Amino acid sequence: CATIKGWFSSDKKKALEPAELVEIANPIRVDAAWSRNLGDGRARQGLRQRAAIDGERVFVSNDEGRVLALDLATGRTLWDSAAVEVTRSGSRLSFWKKGIRDGGLSGGPGLGNGMVVAGGRNGEVVALDADTGAERWRTRVTSEVLASPLVTAGGLIVVRSGDGRVFGLNGHDGSRKWVFDRGLPNLSVRGNGAPIEGGGLVYLGYDDGSIVALRALDGALAWEQLIAPPEGRNDLERLADVDGEMQLGLNELYAVSYHGMMMALASDSGRPLWNRDIGSYGGLTLLSDRLLVADPDGNVWALDRNSGAALWKQDALARRWLTTPAVQGDYVVVGDIEGYLHWLRLSDGTLAGRRRIERAPILGTPQVSASGVLVAVTAEGELIAFPQPQ
Amino acid sequence: QNFDAFQVADIRVEGLQRIAPGTVFTYLPVERGDQIDRRKTAEAIRALFRTGFFSDVRLERQGDILVVVVTERPAINTITLTGNKDIQTEDLLNGLRGIGLSEGETFNPLNLDRVTQELLRQYNNRGKYNVSIVPTVSNLDRNRVDISIVIAEGKASRIRDINIVGNETFGEDVLRRNWESGTSNWLSWYRRDDQYSREKLSGDLEKLTNFYLDRGYVDFNVESTQVAISPDKRDIFVTANVAEGPVYTVSSVKVSGETILPQEELERLIILKEGDTFSRGLVELTSDAIIATLGNVGYAFAQVNPVPEIDRDNRTIGLNFFVDPGPRVQVRRIEFSGNTTTADEVLRREMRQFEGSWFSQAAIDRSKIRLQRLGFFDTVDVETPPVPGQPDMVDVKITVKERNSGQFTFGLGYQQSYGLITTLQLVQNNFVGTGNRFALSLQHNSYSEQFALSFTDPYFTDDGISLGFSIAHSDFDYSDRDANLANFNNAVSSAEFFSLIPLTETDAISVSLGIDRNQITTDDFNTPPMLIDYLVDSLGDRARYPQYHVDNDGNPQTDPSNDDDDPSTTDPLTLGPYRKWNINAWRLQLGWQRDSRNDFLMPTRGLYHRIGAEIVLPGSDLEYYRINYNFEHYWLIRSWLGLRTAAEIGYGDSYGDTRKQQCRVYDELGELTTEFENCGLPFFRNYYVGGPNSVRGFEANSIGPIYTFGDSYQQALGGSFKTAGSFELYFPTLFDNRGTRLSAFFDWGNVYRGPDVWEAKTLRLSAGISLTWQSPMGPIAISYAAPLQYERHDQIERLQFTFGGSF
Amino acid sequence: CGIVYRQPVFQGTLLDKEYVDQLKVGMTRQQVFSLIGSPSVADPFHQSRWDYVQTARRRTGDTEIKNLTLYFEGDALARWEGEYFPEADSELAAEMRRFGNLARDKDKPRQPRPAGN
Amino acid sequence: CATIKGWFDRQDSEPTETLPVEAMYSEAKSAMNSHNYERSGRYFQRLVARFPYGPYSEQSQLELAYVLYKQGRQEEATSAVNRFIRTYPTHRHIDYAYYLKALINFDRNGSNILRLLRQDMSSRDLAGPTQAMNDFADVIRRYPNSRYAPDARQRMIFLRNLLARHEFNVGAYYLRREAFVAAANRGKYILQAYPQSAHEGDALALMERAYRGLGEEQLAADTRRVLELNYPEHPALNDAGWPEKGFFDRLDFLNRLNPFD
Questions:
Q1: Which residues in chain D are closer than 8 Å to B105, comparing Cβ atoms?
Q2: What ipTM, to 2 d.p.?
Q3: Would the pTM of this model clear 0.80, i.e. be above it?
Q4: For a disulfide at B795, which of B99, B315, B699, C70, Cβ 3.0-4.6 Å?
């Protein structure tokens, strides 16, 4: 009689539903300062859209291929300039096919040296002046740019393209300085890790579960370390992407792979320091004494930075597909698949407050400005800012 | 196990349950009296394992007796599959049987692992990536096992986004127009195009490469593709990075190698000229054309290799078609298979290629079309394998899949206009496999009884002259309201010989000679006066028939006024309203037709013209003629969209004495005008239009001049000039079986008293959709049409269907 | 009468003058085969004789027959006699084109050429 | 909810699941003898599955193949008999198994209406007869003195004649169409592929007519001499019209239609 029970969502189905939200004792008051709409967002392309904050300015991209600079306090548009064009076409005859959109901007823009660098879905890389939005230069790489480009202190622009290549571009005119190429498995998790920089090296997480360190000067391979060896019988079981944000400490590098392995490595040689069997499709957040991560089952972990030992674990948000945690004041903030933002106390991980932005998933990591204002973007393109809760 | 060599005196087998000792001995490579050593024992063990019956085999020595100790593998009692929704249980069981796992077979645990891989592969092909398959084996007594496989199919991962990077000149929608993989849309539940499969994607990328190569991008290359899946394994994202490269134009074109035919004859076949943009599709078409031309004169293995000379600087490409004809080949034998009902000669007489003759690709292609046009087969496949040991000989092997090429409908049919039809109908185009057409039909409906018997031998002579005869009798009582026809009764009996004489492969002339006898009964009160006047004018008057029924004094009923209740007196009879005319006619039909349609039931390409004259010979009671012209043209606009245009024009008039006769003239609305005119086409041979097989959306035969009697009851008179036709868009590939066809149509047509009164605005127009299905019981057609241009008094009938075929 | 369609009937192979002229006495059967192909009629009761028979029946008129007979002693060609239809590939190609060719079925691979020629 | 499941398939209460092996076998056997092949097939099938070894199961697998053959289910019958041969190669009735395998192919498309109307089966699909020919040859080769060998030889003779008649019919057709090379080669094929068949005379006559048609008087004369030597009374020798059939003979398929004469 499995059939009859099957009609009313058998328990097997309930196992996949996000956990119900439980009442919070005395929730902290959290209300939004302002919110903006950025077009119909990136849900269809499965991209983790997020804002970039520099001081009192927030830089975002909308679905028309334009980059906008907004004032952090009020959300007013400082400037708005076109980066890439988007062709929306669907032949009239084949009415049953939705219009096909070609082009447009992908992940969040990269900031640095007074420049805003945006990556496009047709491989475009566009540099705009951070103050005026005027275009400085534009170039093209061999495949779509999913992760936000890195603007290094030395003026180098590092762009990770979708076909596994990494381009080192000259900051002034976008000319190509070096290219690093590496193979990809034939099935990987959507999205690429954004490159980060430290001590003359550029670190990148790859889809086959390894970390690559390149010399910023000439793109030569400094070292390479496998975090989680992909094993399993078919492509699905062998997914081991390192797609989330990596964090750089004094001379250690922290990274996490989808395949259930988190590792701290020596940033100069890649020698593994410690590892934990916690995986994540998102990334890590580093604080002075702890690391924060959200695993695919929806548990939020706080781990001791030096040993990886678990300080606390919050599992009330199980199966809600959480974003990478962000830190606002002494709270940890995560977004989930039903459009809720959750505030947890940094000290013990207990639920402090929650607000729902809209009925659309939050994929991109919420960004927190120096002044403590948190900016989050939903997959349907709703941008919202929350000042520091008291 | 490890003993040194010894002479085997006897062999004993231990541990057998199901398997007989004899079986072990047949497979055991050791006999009594053999010398056995280490190598032989290993070989023996391997041999016994290969049988698949045993899970363990050991050889031991007792004195000089070789003891074979085996443990049998259990037999499978039942296999149960649960949780499979997407793939039917039978298909899964067939798959398992394919790898040696079915009830009654011996169970080998190794197979179990192969089973999970096999099922996983089947599900991955359908895009179901996160399926879980758990086989469990439970042991039973008597060394048997039950296998139950629990499947949790999970949700199929759908393609959410496809991104082509690097396409500067063409938009993504143009590039992805006829891809098989697509992003989910409202039709995906049916077309499953959003289900990811690696084969489909590689096929689509090949289409992309062909698209660019056909437009001159010689250097086009798909550099890399990435497939990514969302963390919850539900959505798939595909990215293809391409480099278009420059457009190349053709710099020079020539043919070289052993061309057999004169050089310029082959060069005329080259489609690309200097200066054109390069197109691989056209190069391939040119190669095919040259190969076909050589293949038509014996070179079955001709090969054409287009050697490109690429000049990258000024982006031009020279094409040199190198011809290598191979040997001149002759056909040794032609063999048919699959014809379980159809006789060999019925297939062989359609062949244009003969045994013992030089090979001709055109003759074989023509034969394939002719076999398809018989209408006896669903598919006709032609193979020309080389004869082993004879490099210059091939056989022609033709495999056909027969379809029931006739109808045997017994019982009830229903045609809207004819009401309930009780029918005994046996139509066999391939009667008992002899290729002859035999048709017998007894039909009764609300206003007609019909009997018809016809027999045709399409190959009365070897060259294809067909001969046939038909006899028929039908009795139409048009007084019935449904028929919408003028109210009179017509009993027709006819006999006819007909023949079709081919002039070329597609043209033929048809000749037929027959006699028919019409017996028309009119009712003075109901039959439209113009019909009665016509008969009277052209054939002379007829007396009215006495009416017989008994009155109260036992005598035949007299006029109530003079019925005197006295049985001894005979009272004068009253005359009923009915009068009867007999018309005999010798009918000669001559026709010319050209038919190049490529299929009998569902043509997709080809032309059909037929012009025919039907002349009633002088000396018959009424002398008249009718000339008809039918036209049909099929062509494929797209692989999935076909167009059929058809038209029919008919005109008839009388001649000789009948024409000299003067008949009264009535106007459109049936009012008598005073003048006289020659009597045109007899009304019972008038053309009618309207109904399911003519202009859809109108009741049968209801279009054209009418005669309204009293308040509402109107009768269609038909006309002597008919113009009708239709434009039909159909979708050949929408249904996978060939017998079903959905089409959107636009019908037009009307009948007139003569060509002089023809006007476009009085043509009836209608548009709608129709579904035809070749059921085993005969063709079924359902159509829904909305009339666009019609008169107020027209009888509209939007939904129409025919069942059991019209006879 | 002439107008009724009579299907063209051809028999035998088509011989090229260029190769037939290269026949030399003493050639082995294999050499003759590689020059002008296999004979259309090899009578089982006359092992020593190969007949390259050719017939052609067009729409009108009766069947034209031509026969080139080769005689062998053992395996060596002794003599040959008879005539054969002169080369008429262009006319034949034109005639055959009237039958019309079907487009090549895309997914059926083209005919592999057997070994040996 | 066990009851609901029970409604759909009365699997457990069915006798085939509970009877002992002897009762199952006798039930199946009696059903077979009373020509209720469907029921006996079901019993044999369950017997083989429930009691996979022992004397009954061997015999049942063979009977199952026979019952399936009688039901006209050719593929299943062939796979059942093949499984029997593979599992019990030394069974004492193994010769019957090979014989049954040949019988199945012999009647492959025999049971339809054509047989009733006595149409010439030699001009229909010959895949069944060709395969049956090889299977019967197998029976004779493996078990020359088996009980079934004589019948196998008879059927092979019938099949050889059937295949030869097919060749002859095609040859006669090509003769009528004046495709003389085709007719001659079909005749030669009969002599080479089906020696001593009933149509050897016809083959020679066919070749003689074909050579005459080709104007090869010498070949025609030699072939005629061979025909006279071997088949002096062959109709072709004196009837010039052979093998042509008169006008009314061409309609003979009509009189062959009435199955009663």
A1: 83
A2: 0.78
A3: no
A4: B699
